[in-house]
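The records we work with from here on pair a chain with its fold. These numbers are not coordinates but entries in a learned vocabulary of local backbone shapes. To see the layout at work, look at the sequence and tokens printed below.
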Amino acid sequence: MLKLATLAAFIVVGGTLLLRGSVTAHYTSSGGFFPHGHVAPLLAITFALYTFGGIEIVAITTGEANSRTVIPRAVRLTFAILCIVYLGAIAVLAGVMPWNQVGTGESPFVTVFRSIRIPAAAGLMNFVILTAALSGANANLYAGSRILFSLARTGWAPPGLGKLNAAGSPTFALLASSCGILVAFVLEKWMPEKAFVYILDASLFGLLLAWLVSLAAHISFRCRISPERLSAIPLRSPTGLWGSAAGLVLVSAAILKSWWDSRVNLISGVVYLLLLTTAYVLTRPQKRKVQYSGERRSAWLSR
């Protein structure tokens, strides 16, 4: 909420300054709106995807929702907030500061807040950034532990990760998910200059892989579902199957483009896929055993 409130304040303050003419609009300065051509913005697509990373967590939280009626509302609200807040902040940012000066000095958020004489603007933004980072880490820790718990309950991960404590929380899955934080500490210790970039690059492939799997699953789902069942779904994609197909192509293109942006992303992603494939081959007999045991138990209970 701190991050959301700060972004909203930035949009209001920056938009007011632009509308009143208190600051010079820089939309067409420093070479125009497309200083390097209309195709140049596509070069930033890989980095822009980070902005919307984590939206898939909405699907993971639905497993613990009290009512299925809140799920469509949560999806619509999340999408609306992302579009309004993030795109609005970018629109204001492009207006209040020339594009070739962003990131060269202080944060543009600090510049805007200082222009209206907010005391300790730099310290305030540092507090907001640290709070947002903690919130992001908490959300991903929640998502990772729930995924491990689900995999363990279906036989695709060690059974111990599928246990709950007295409060109903998957403690062992949570501890296993937190191992990534130890990796971050090690990198920060031994490579402080490149640790953040390496972690960011390596995590992008996992993010895009989750999107690819989700899009492919939706395409498969829409191909198999009957029109009657489709009409009964409370929330449907407005673009249907073809929207997911287009997304699948575009996200795949973004992954391939990362070869020019950061090869750490692509190389670590290939290694990641090899490890997942190896884990799948090793756990597949266990999966069949769990399914067989479940079928035998069901048959015994039915008798």
